[in-house]
Amino acid sequence: MLNPCRTFIPSCSLHFRLLVAFVLGWLSLPVIAETSWQALNQPGKRESVYFATVELPYIDVYSGAGRGYPVFHVIERGEAFAVIKRRNDWFKIVTSTNVTGWVKASALNGNSDGLGESIAIANVDSDDFGQRPFEVGITVGDFGGTDSVSLYGSYHFIDKMAGVLTYSENFGDVSNGRTVGLTLEARPFPAWRLSPFFSLGGGQRWTSPKQSQAQGDTVNNGFFLVGGGVHLFLTSRFAFRAEFNQHIVLTNLDDDQQINEWKIGLSTFF
Description:
Elements: H1 4-8, H2 14-27, H3 37-40, E1 50-53, E2 58-62, E3 71-76, E4 80-87, E5 90-95, E6 100-104, H4 105-108, E7 112-113, H5 127-130, E8 134-143, E9 146-158, E10 161-171, E11 175-186, E12 194-209, E13 219-233, E14 238-249, E15 257-269
Antiparallel strand pairs: 1-4, 1-7, 2-3, 4-5, 5-6, 8-9, 8-15, 9-10, 10-11, 11-12, 12-13, 13-14, 14-15
């Protein structure tokens, strides 16, 4: 698995490495554990699994979630199966003969569920993302000409508005920095798959000289930022994130310091 600290920033602190490992572990968690038909039918398990029966002449089962994968199995009329995962308009299923594969959402319509009711599956759209108010992610990028890595979490507390808490570290030739920021994000089109956002916020920044350079104390400054970016929703749970921010660092000098930042990363919603 890619380690952003080792790949981009060899000098990350131990605590930050642990935080990165935790986020990457969370991002790699499966939505529903894969299991066998017999295990799904155990008492206490059936209530949490979606069962269905084929009412159509047949359903094609693909080896992967996409039209480019081959059909390797056919479920015939009257055969039961269980749905264990959804990926956009594809569903992962396990048949009563322990065949595991993927079926298109449209292929499920017209069959019957465990209560004998007809199934009607809506195509996934970006509205599904808006039903997941929490987001966590990791980004890497450039902060004023230095490598940076960030961890963030957000909460979508009202329609089209989210609060974001970010912790960042950046590493330069002369000094290293740590930043904690709190921003408000306006998300005017949350239902779009490529959804823009605009940020306004502030926080605190600590800048420390490297040991190999002239000795000095850590400098603590407040800052404001304004920026924007986009979410590209990859699935109902994951999104690619790209953003650009302009920081105004408040200093004791006549002119405050302006620092540009860009970063990209991956986030998950829950």
